Amino acid sequence: MNYIDLFAGAGGLSEGFMRAGYDAIAHIEMNTDAANTIKTRLCYFYLKSQKKINEYYQYLKGEISRDSLYGKIPTSILDTVINTKMTKDNLPSLFKIIDDRLKEEKVDVIVGGPPCQAYSLAGRNKQKRIQEEQNKGSNIDDERKYLYQIYCEFLKHYKPKMFVFENVPGLITAEGGKHWADIKKLFDEIGYEIKDKPLNSKAFGVPQERKRIIIVGWLKNTNFKFPEFNEIESNWTLRDILNDLPSLQAGEESKSYSDSSIHPYVEKNFRIPEDVLTWHLSRPNNDRDREIYRLAIKEWITNNQQKRLQYANIPEELRTHKNTKDFTDRFKIVPPNIAYSHTILAHIAKDGHYYIHYDLEQARSLTVREAARLQSFPDNYFFEGSRTSAFTQIGNAVPPLMAEAIAIQLKNQLIVHGGETDV
Helix 147-158 crosses helix 178-189 at what angle (to 10 degrees)? Predict the structure, then answer.
């Protein structure tokens, strides 16, 4: 089976499909750091298949450069990553690149999720505020709302048997459902039946509450359908998920694991014996913020109330905003005693107030590696770029465990039904 990944980001969807045994025809991503992250991950899979995984770990240890690592990989593999912004103008050139790679082969699956900020509640509120500031009488037309049209151009050109389209629940309701109606109409016109369902990543074993709309489409008059999933019940807490990562103070980094015991679920999904710890790096936090973090931790744990800290309850001398009515839980801990964190958003790249570590002695925001685990990225997944870029890539990603479950179910259908039709 093969696939094309559009708006690929850091490769969360691709990770799931590669684990399920699919071959990548192309990953298209406009952000250079994210594109390099996918290339580095392709190195991992190739070197693992060649029983040369130690060469990948040499890179993680800083013993060889990225250019040296990439030099060990066939260019045909790295060239599947196309670092460009997709527009209607450059589609012909993109199609030519991919067509030359495919030759006579057909595409089995197209996957991807156009950037979702334009459909998210937070994104729409931001647009509204900008509009009000500029005293405009009509809605700001965010071009990201129409990127689904680019996605559909790929469906029209390659006619994959199935596709996966991931987005935020706000896609369905944005502008009174206008865009959702347009999307459904376009999928129908180009020859696809679709089914959409709201799915929560926690049902797939991801230690995080993350609600998304998953649209699965298939060519009309075929026997495919929306996949069915068995929900994974948790046998862990967030402390179990993060406990083997060393204690840090704000601004510190560690490159070696602690001696803490490893929970079986961590061993199964996140960490193997040969792993090298990377990106266990925390951002600096000033004294005022750390004092607020301690208040938030105490509110949940020390006082045994399991309550969120409300902004109005922060001493006035520690506040930086006068508004105590909106965003009252702007300081939020990741609790140790439950199985699922709240959603990891790309906003974690801006500050860590919404992602406070539960340990009172540390009183800091999450590290990059801790955020990656909550998104179900394994520890040997390396993010290219700066700390800010890594946080953004993680917050925007599809959790790999969720992607893998979807990939497996689609593969099962493709194997069983193949080219069968109802006519």
Answer: 10
pLDDT category of residue 116 using cuts at 50, 70 and 90: low
370-416 pLDDT, tens digit each: 999 999 999 999 999 999 999 999 999 999 999 999 999 999 999 99
**Residue at token pair 């919404």:** 354
Same domain, 266 and 170: no
The pTM of the full predicted model, rounded to 2 decimals, is 0.91
216 beta partners: 164, 195
Q: What is the distance between the alpha carbons of residues 108 and 155, in angstroms, rounded to a whole number?
A: 11
Query: In the predicted model, is pLDDT for residue 123 greater than 90?
Result: no
Dihedral sign of CA atoms 384, 388, 389, 395 in order = positive
- Is the domain of 243 the same as that of 375? yes
- DSSP conformation class of 302: I
Same domain for 15 and 76, yes or no, is: yes
pLDDT of residue 12: 97
Judge if 166 and 43 occupy the same domain.
yes
Asked whether residue 12 is assigned to any structural domain, the reply reads yes
207 lies in the same domain as 245: no
Domain region containing 226 = 2-232+398-417
Number of domains the chain is built from: 2
**Is 116 assigned a catalytic role?**
yes
CA dist 77 and 359 (Å) reads 43
Catalytic residue selected from 34, 116, 241, 405: 116
Q: Which token pair is 26?
A: 């192309």
Same domain, 216 and 269: no
Residue 422 lies in a domain: no
Q: Report the C-alpha gap between 213 and 340 in whole angstroms.
A: 19
Assigned token pair, 123: 């994104």
SS in 3 state form for 372-415? HHHCCCCCCCCCCCCHHHHHHHHHHCCCHHHHHHHHHHHHHHHH
